[in-house]
Amino acid sequence: LASLLAFVSGAMTTVWMVNWGLRRKLQSAYGRPLLLEAGLLLVFGLFGSGINFFAGLFVPLTVLVLCFIMGLQNAVITKISHAEIRTTHVTGLVTDLGIELGKLLYINRLTRDNLVTANRTKLRIHSVLITSFFLGGLAGAIGFKVFGFITTVPLALCIVLVVWHPVFVVARTWIEPQMGRKTAIFPAKVERSAQL
Predict the structure, then answer these.
(1) pLDDT higher than 60, residue 192
(2) CA distance 111 to 156
């Protein structure tokens, strides 16, 4: 139950962060939850080896953190794709792939009015995602066996590199005053009051 709540909490956190950013028209709306995900992965990778020393305390806590991270990740991609793609479980992707393959191989014999056709773009996306799941799982298992928890550090750094620019640009505009504004901490409120 706690793992489920952690996953849901991660998804809720993403929705709060993304919607907050979208309402303010920020470039970093989707980058903020990914930056949080990268930070948590970094902590997990750097301090994961300490789990063995206090297994009774840290193993359940680690499971909750990982479930929270999966909730964050899944909700970001779900929001970006408008609920077309999920990234933390493969069963839905395999089902969607099967549906599109069934449409692709369906023979339209009786009528030409309502043809059954496959969405080839969706078919390609789901094929790439399933292949990525397989390769990522394989690389993660080998990496964990060879290097241990530190395997997550390069992944976290890659996420930071991808989202750093939009997050940094927005953070800089909020910290530095712009165009004669007295404060840039709440630019949306300042613009609204200027329009009144």
Answers:
(1) no
(2) 52
What would the two tokens of residue 28 be?
A: 């970093």
pTM of the full predicted structure? 0.70
Written as one letter, the residue type at 107 is I
Supply the DSSP string of 85-101, one letter for each residue.
--SS-SHHHHHHHHHHH
- Give the whole-angstrom CA distance, residue 95 versus residue 101: 10
CA distance 64 to 3: 5
Mean model confidence pLDDT for the chain: 82
Who contacts 184 (Cβ-Cβ below 8 Å, separation ≥6)?
Answer: 173, 174, 175, 176, 177, 178, 190
Can you list the alpha helix ranges (DSSP code H) found in the chain?
Answer: 2-23, 31-47, 55-80, 91-105, 120-147, 152-175, 187-195
